TrEMBL record:
Skewed-composition ranges (Basic and acidic residues): 1-30, 44-53
Protein name per UniProt: Antitoxin
Span list, region Disordered: 1-64
Domain of life: Bacteria
Annotated organism of origin: Streptomyces thermocoprophilus
Cited Pfam families: MT0933_antitox (PF14013)
InterPro entries named among the record's database cross-references: Antitoxin_Rv0909/MT0933 (IPR028037)
Chain intervals with Polar residues compositional bias: 31-43
């Protein structure tokens, strides 16, 4: 079992909390870098959410 599989198992049932944590972390990085890397941070946030299965549960938010 790979590290990502273990991570997904730990998050199972807590996707909403994980979404909030990813968003909060991204906001912190944006704040510390004064938004200089906001595009890259947003991409990383979406990739993290996709990796732990947010989109496996149903459709994501439209337009993102």
């Amino acid at each position: 079992m790979g590290m990502m599989d273990k991570f997904k198992q730990m998050l199972k049932g807590h996707e909403d909390q994980a979404d909030k944590a990813v968003d909060k972390g991204g906001d912190y990085i944006d704040q510390r870098t004064q938004g200089k890397y906001s595009g890259q941070v947003d991409s990383a946030q979406e990739r993290m959410k996709d990796q732990y299965g947010r989109n496996d549960q149903g459709p994501g938010e439209p337009g993102q």
